[in-house]
Amino acid sequence: MTKKIVFGNFKGGVGKTTNSVMSAYELANKGYKTLVCDLDPQSNSTQLLRRTYGLQNGKELKINKTMMVAIQEGNIEPAVVNIMDNLDLLPSYQDFTNYPDFLEQKFLPTEPGYKEKRNAYFDQLLKSFQEKYDYIILDVPPTLSIFTDAALYTTDYVVVVLQTQQRSLDGAEAFFEYLQRFYDTYENTDFDVAGVLPVLLKNDAGVDNSILKEANEIFGKDMIFNNIVKHMERLKRYDRLGISEKGKTEKWDFHDTKLHEKYSNLTSEIIERTED
């Protein structure tokens, strides 16, 4: 059965996209058929995976149809592109900013239940082929928007990404509160919070430890992931050049080995936390 997971926070720049893509990447390496849905018009997940494809294949990834065009045609499956074994991408592009206008025209305010129909539209399109995948990872913008609502309407689980800074903690709390309101508002939604994923700004720094302690008090110890994403410079290179893979890319050293091991452990915990 397909499991859909949203990575989110109402604070930008917390590593949400990096961690959602790295988790999807390691799920694919474990043999799970995985799809990344980039529901952010900024297209950060798409850019990272395009760079990854280029790095590992020595050629540019061809995207013949944008997701927005596919949505307008009523069938998003033809927009899906393959990145590597077990990993596909539903790519975003700048024209995805038109999605709210598209929904406003399709479901008019005079129509009963128009708000829910707008939120449910992407879910309906995804359901037509989602069973092809074991996991679907949904990356969303750090805002209260129809993009986020569409992801929450279709998802089964939410991972709250918490960078160890005060604004990120505030954003995580606000996101938690919004999740509860959203869940209570729409009867057809049914998701659980898989946990809060801490992302350290600095390893073993006083502020980071203080934020982690406060997060444990606010959300509960069991809600905090055991696998914490520590500050690793190699992630910056992946964001810029794409994800390195042993045997597929020339640049590979013990830093890459360590990073992939950490994310392999993280995805194992994600699998455990999303077991039915």
Describe the structure.
The model has no long low-confidence stretch (mean pLDDT 92). The protein has helices spanning 16-29, 44-57, 67-73, 99-106, 114-127, 146-154, 166-185, 206-219, 234-241, 254-273; strands spanning 3-8, 34-38, 81-84, 87-90, 135-139, 157-163, 192-199. The termini are close together. By secondary structure, it is an alpha/beta fold. It has a single domain, classed as Rossmann fold (3-Layer(aba) Sandwich). It has ten helices and seven strands. A seven-stranded mixed beta sheet has the order 3-4-2-5-1-6-7, with helices on both faces. The chain is 46% helix and 14% strand. Residues 3-189 form the AAA domain. InterPro entries: AAA_dom (IPR025669), DNA_Partitioning_ATPase (IPR050678), P-loop_NTPase (IPR027417). This is AAA family ATPase.
Features:
single chain, 7-stranded mixed beta sheet, 7 strands, alpha/beta, Rossmann fold, 276 residues
